[in-house]
Amino acid sequence: MTRHFAWLVSLLLVLTLSACGFHLRGIGGELKPLSFKTLYIGGRTTGSSDALRKMLMVDPRVTLVDSPSKADAVLTFTDEQQSRQLSTIDKSGKANEYMLSYRIVFNVTLFGQEQMPITLNSHRSMTYSDSDVLGKAQEEAMLWNDMHVDTARLVVYRMQALKPQASADASGPHAVVKP
What we know:
Blueprint: H1 2-19, E1 38-43, H2 47-57, E2 63-64, E3 73-89, E4 95-110, E5 113-114, E6 118-127, H3 133-161
Parallel strand pairs: 1-2, 1-3
Antiparallel strand pairs: 3-4, 4-5, 4-6
Helix pairs in contact: 2-3
């Protein structure tokens, strides 16, 4: 009887979560539409720029172009910084934990109007053990890659929020006209 009750409660929980629109990040939910159709990614080549290219190549609503003159929006990565700092040590003075920090700065020019520079930061903590050096090196590489993908996703979220600003001359094809 208790097994049937547990199964029924589990089924009810799954149905409740699916009815409210819950889904895991990256699964199911569509990206919000961007205010542009073509994008040029320039500036420094960063881990996030590579992840961003891969992410946007599968989105049929955005076309990556090879020239800024062909693009509605130009995204330029201006700075990237990665750092690994010692966070904690054990009694014998050996490293116990590291803090990985990743920072990118980028500019977006939307329909010829330059937006404010945007800075994104990402942090991860990583335990360390002298007995498992190779495994920890692989874990660190995976954490860096995860941080690149996360910041690329944040870049897309920031670009979704960008809207063309009203200009003094409202004659262009993307001008915002106020009633």
